[in-house]
């Protein structure tokens, strides 16, 4: 894809009988490259919050919880926003093949900085490099996969993207599993170092395959005229200067990072909607569908804001109130957040099979969104019950793991559904942009989770979980009431 990182069929949607030999060989090289990149990304994300929150004697930075939530939320949102810029660069400046290589090298440097440089210096340098590198790599490697499958029949194309998506999920589970173990046994910087090794493995996998990539992967599809190529560099330089001035003058700080990223994500999304709804290239029918997607986009952003609290509010809760000791052994803290994607991976084939069996009787897209919102709302209602029963005492580890299962498994009703919907209803002249718009819901959700994490630190736990649970259940219920007119327009 050219503007978003995930143009693929959700796992479990590959046709029956798809076999490895039916998939172009290059797909496997890209899939394993992506697996290692996701290993590094999620491996870092699994321990990042705790690195910020833990005391100095435990190897952490002992940052105030509100500031830590702001940093984590802004980091996640910036990673997704950067991928829009990476897609644009791959389309206008540097070929996708080289963008992936550059991105991989920059990400590796970021993880090495986190592992080798102490304190806030390593944190700042490392996260900025990872944001930039991920922006360059993610969208463009998916573009290359699309080129490899260009012209293939639908079943083989779907199977190819399914295997690619499977690699993403494997990396999302194995990454925090191993970096969490390294952090638990040796310390945070060893976890960061393991993430760096994962990125080196991605480069070792990718570089030999570059010669065998489709010719189009080495070309710039829509290059900027030579005389205008300095313009992006000027904008980048100006942005760096503005950010530096804002940071050193105190206008930009850890507590307001998430707010700023949220505003940027909303402005970007508003621009996408405005362009499509006012373009003469978009038919009246297409405009109605885009307009109907607006409430689903906003609700998707809220949903991911609730889900991504596993990296903000829930991480703070784990640090303050969860007993990680099982006898003489300490449960790796990153494994708690790992349970969320693991539950989604495990339930996806079951849900996919259910949709296949139901056929035309399966719930429509808006209904699935509503189910996801209400399920995650119920997960927080369960957490409210736990918090109320335990009071100020520690919460048993098993209970928080059950919460992660309930919250994480709800993603199958929103994540892949939004992607499939965006690819289906996107105006013919803006198909890639529509997928990019859907992808912005992840940026919005990530930054929103930072804001919610800051709210968590300001009010009692019970009050907070009541608000969040009610938001999920009520918004899901309202969407359920409005599902018929929305589904009628979308379908």
Radius of gyration of CA atoms, rounded to a whole number: 22 Å
Low-confidence sequence ranges: 1-21
Order of helices and strands: HHHHHHHHHHEEHHHHHHH
**CATH homologous superfamily classification:** MFS general substrate transporter like domains
Q: Average pLDDT across residues?
A: 87
CATH class: Mainly Alpha
Shape: globular
Strand order of the largest sheet: 1-2
Q: Give the termini separation.
A: 23 Å
Short description:
The protein is an all-alpha fold. The chain is built from 17 helices and two strands.
Tell me about this structure.
There is one protein chain. The chain has 491 residues and is an all-alpha fold. 74% of the residues lie in helices and 1% in strands. The chain has one domain: Growth Hormone, Chain: A, CATH 1.20.1250.20. The chain contains 17 helices and two strands. Strands 1-2 form a two-stranded antiparallel ribbon. A hairpin with a 2-residue loop joins β1 (325-326) and β2. α3 (96-116) packs antiparallel against α6.
Give short descriptive properties of this protein.
2 strands; two-stranded antiparallel sheet; disordered N terminus; 491 residues; mainly alpha
Could you outline the blueprint of secondary structure elements for this entry?
Blueprint: H1 25-53, H2 65-92, H3 96-116, H4 119-148, H5 154-185, H6 188-206, H7 230-248, H8 257-278, H9 284-307, H10 313-321, E1 325-326, E2 329-330, H11 334-358, H12 365-390, H13 397-409, H14 415-425, H15 431-458, H16 461-481, H17 483-490
Antiparallel strand pairs: 1-2
Helix pairs in contact: 1-2, 1-4, 1-5, 1-6, 1-11, 2-4, 2-8, 2-15, 3-4, 3-6, 5-6, 5-11, 8-9, 8-15, 9-12, 9-14, 9-15, 11-13, 12-13, 12-16, 12-17, 14-15
């Amino acid at each position: 894809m050219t503007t978003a990182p995930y143009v693929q069929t959700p796992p479990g949607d590959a046709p029956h009988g798809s076999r490895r030999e039916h998939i172009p060989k290059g797909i496997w090289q890209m899939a394993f490259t992506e697996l290692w990149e996701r290993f590094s990304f999620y491996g870092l994300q699994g321990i990042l919050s705790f690195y910020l929150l833990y005391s100095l004697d435990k190897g952490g930075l002992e940052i105030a919880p509100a500031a830590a939530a702001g940093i984590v939320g802004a980091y996640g949102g910036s990673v997704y926003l950067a991928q829009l810029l990476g897609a644009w660069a791959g389309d206008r400046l540097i070929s996708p093949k080289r963008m992936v290589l550059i991105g991989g090298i920059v990400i590796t440097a970021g993880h090495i900085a986190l592992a080798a440089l102490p304190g806030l210096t390593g944190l700042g340098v490392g996260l900025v490099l990872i944001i930039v590198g991920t922006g360059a790599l993610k969208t463009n490697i998916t573009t290359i996969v699309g080129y490899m499958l260009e012209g293939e029949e639908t079943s083989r194309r779907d199977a190819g993207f399914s295997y690619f998506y499977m690699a993403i999920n494997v990396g999302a589970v194995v990454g925090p599993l191993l970096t969490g173990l390294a952090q638990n046994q040796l310390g945070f910087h060893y976890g960061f170092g393991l993430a760096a090794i994962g990125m080196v493995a991605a480069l070792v996998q990718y570089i030999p395959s570059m010669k065998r990539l489709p010719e189009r992967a080495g070309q710039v599809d829509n290059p900027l005229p030579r005389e205008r190529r300095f313009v992006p560099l000027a904008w980048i330089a100006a942005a760096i200067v503005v950010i530096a001035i804002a940071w050193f003058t105190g206008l930009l700080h850890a507590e307001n990072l998430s707010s700023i990223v949220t505003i940027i994500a909303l402005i970007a999304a508003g621009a996408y909607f405005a362009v499509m709804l006012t373009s003469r290239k978009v038919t009246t029918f297409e405009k109605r569908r885009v307009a109907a997607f607006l409430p689903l986009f906003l609700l998707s952003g809220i949903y991911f804001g609730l889900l991504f609290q596993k990296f903000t509010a829930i991480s703070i809760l784990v640090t303050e109130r969860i007993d990680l000791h099982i006898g003489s052994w300490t449960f790796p803290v990153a494994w708690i957040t790992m349970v969320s994607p693991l539950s989604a991976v495990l339930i996806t084939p079951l849900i996919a099979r259910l949709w296949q069996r139901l056929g035309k009787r399966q719930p429509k897209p808006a209904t699935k969104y509503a189910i996801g919102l209400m399920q995650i709302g119920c997960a927080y209602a369960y957490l409210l019950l736990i918090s109320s029963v335990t009071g100020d005492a520690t919460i048993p580890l098993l209970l928080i793991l059950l919460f992660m299962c309930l919250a994480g498994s709800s993603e199958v009703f929103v994540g892949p559904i939004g992607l499939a919907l965006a690819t289906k209803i996107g105006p013919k002249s803006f198909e890639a942009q529509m997928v990019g718009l859907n992808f912005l819901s992840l940026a919005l959700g990530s930054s929103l989770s930072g804001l919610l994490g800051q709210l968590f630190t300001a009010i009692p736990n019970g009050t907070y979980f009541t608000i969040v649970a009610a938001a999920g259940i009520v918004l899901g219920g309202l969407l359920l009431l409005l599902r018929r007119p929305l589904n009628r327009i979308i379908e």
